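This section describes the prediction task in plain terms. A model, or a person checking by hand, is given the sequence of a single protein chain and must write out its three-dimensional structure as a string of tokens. No templates, partner chains or ligands are provided. The sample shown here is typical of the held-out split.
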Amino acid sequence: MTSVLIASDQSLQRHGLRMLLAGEPDLAVAGEARDSVEAVRLSAVLRPDVVLLDGRLHEADNDVIRRITRPAALAVSVEPLSPARVLVLTPVGDEAHAYAALRAGAGGFLPQDATPDELIAAIRVVAHGDSVITPHLTRALIDTVRQLQPALPAAPGVGLHAFTERERDVLTAVASGWSNAEIAEKLSIAPTTVKSHVSHILAKIGARARVQAVTYAYESGLVRPAA
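The expected answer:
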């Protein structure tokens, strides 16, 4: 059973999302948060698998995603905890905030006009540790990176020298939007080997989601947005 915390400042949206999720046998609503402070607090208390976050709350508090996905309690707890994964419902045309959410640790994005089926599928994907991002938003985020890149600092932490040549190949392919199966075919390696490389890449850059590796690839200069 996947538990979901709904975080939105709109009571009607929270009610609608609760009703939608209640109809799915493998999903359960852990609670509702009305603002970013409550979202962080309830995430720590209820420990949901996924936090479904209204993008407006992220705009109001740029650290809310970081505090949910990297809670300080994890560093001191004797019990192994798995922080929640964040799925952001982003307003259409708000790609700059989506990019900031990505850097903060969000595991996926959906436009707020997504269909119920798209939302349910996205929650399941994010809960299993994969990333969700629509093709339109991918293109928009790349455009945002291109516009911001001259002002972006070098990617923090590990440098490109820390990766093997094969890991750099895989990271480049991931940033190009290829699936594991496509990468395996292009590089003539097994899909399980691709998955292993991706896991090593995420571990080295301290990321939890594949989509964050895409950001790293662009910020490090390994991949550059097309003009």
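For orientation: The first strand starts at residue 2 and ends at 7.
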